[in-house]
Structure formats: structure tokens, C-alpha cells
């Protein structure tokens, strides 16, 4: 014999808001994970290496002088550095900062590999010559 118990939750307004907020954050996390998986799968298909970059404050940081301040975003879409006066579209500033961070991260990954490859390239060259 199988017994089934049905429970109906009756959250109050505060609990309902918290549940809704939790579900929204959960959905955002799932979307982000799916997006990451898609990007990794796509990159692997065409032999690209993804370089993860922390996007925090990239549209608040001046790409010219490095000054970071919330007030650098004077209006929607506009970036104006309060330290040096540099201005541009906020999306351009964010993309520039992400590209610079990726370039730095890439150097950290690529330089040891290039150094190791250079070490072995001499041996490979000698082996080829001796054959
Ligand atoms: Zn600046």
C-alpha cells in the first residue's frame, strides 16, 4: 500500500519574496554555467583557449590611469574618469579593461610555455640535423 502526503506551503509575503529571490539567483547561476559550458565547448571545437577574466569594476576603472571609482560612471553608458578626465563609452572602457586583463593573464600562461618550448626546440633541431 502506498501513502501519499501532500503539503501545501503558505509562505508569508517576506518568505515568498525570499523564495522568489533565491529562485532568480539559482536561475542566473544555471544560465551562467550553461553559457560557460557552451563557450568552453565552442572554444575546444576551434582550438581556442579561453582566458577567464574577473569582470568586476571593469567599467568603473579608467583604462588610461587605472583610477577606479563608482563615480567614474557619470551617466548610463558614459565613462568619465574623475582623476585624469579620460572619457569614453562605458562599454568600450569595460571591453578595453577586459582585453588588457586577458593580455596580462595570457602572458602568465604563455611565457613559461614558450620558454619550455624554446628549451626543447634546440634539442629537436639537433636531432633533426643529426638524422
Ligand atoms: Zn583616468
Structure description:
The chain contains 2 helices and 2 strands, in the order αββα. With 131 residues, the protein is mainly alpha-helical. It starts with 12 loop residues before the first helix and ends with a helix. The structure holds zinc ion (ZN). The site of zinc ion (ZN) has 8 residues, from loops.
Can you lay out the helices and strands and say which pair or pack?
Layout: H1 13-45, E1 78-80, E2 87-89, H2 90-130
Bound molecules: zinc ion.
The site of zinc ion has 8 residues, from loops.
Descriptive keywords:
single chain; 131 residues; 2 domains; 5% strand; binds zinc ion
Quick structural overview:
Helix content is 56%, strand content 5%. It has 131 residues and is mainly alpha-helical.
Bound molecules: zinc ion
The radius of gyration over CA amounts to 25 Å
Helix count equals 2
Helix-residue proportion: 55-70%
User: Widest sheet: strand order?
Assistant: 1-2
Count of all domains: 2
> What's the helix-strand series?
HEEH
Poorly predicted runs? none
Globally, the shape reads flat
Structural class: mainly alpha
Mean pLDDT, nearest integer? 84
The termini sit apart by: 80 Å
Which strand-content bin applies to the residues? under 5%
Amino acid at each position: 500500500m502506498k501513502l501519499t502526503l501532500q503539503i501545501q506551503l503558505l509562505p508569508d509575503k517576506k518568505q515568498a519574496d525570499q523564495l522568489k529571490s533565491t529562485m532568480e539567483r539559482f536561475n542566473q547561476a544555471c544560465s551562467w554555467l550553461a553559457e560557460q559550458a557552451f563557450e568552453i565547448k565552442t572554444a575546444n571545437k576551434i582550438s581556442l583557449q579561453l582566458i577567464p577574466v574577473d569582470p568586476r569594476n571593469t567599467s568603473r576603472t579608467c583604462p588610461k590611469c587605472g583610477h577606479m571609482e563608482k563615480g567614474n560612471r557619470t551617466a548610463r553608458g558614459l565613462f568619465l574618469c574623475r582623476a585624469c578626465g579620460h572619457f569614453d563609452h562605458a562599454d568600450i572602457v569595460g571591453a578595453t579593461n577586459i582585453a588588457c586583463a586577458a593580455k596580462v593573464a595570457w602572458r602568465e600562461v604563455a611565457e613559461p610555455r614558450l620558454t619550455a618550448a624554446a628549451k626543447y626546440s634546440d634539442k629537436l633541431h639537433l636531432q633533426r640535423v643529426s638524422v
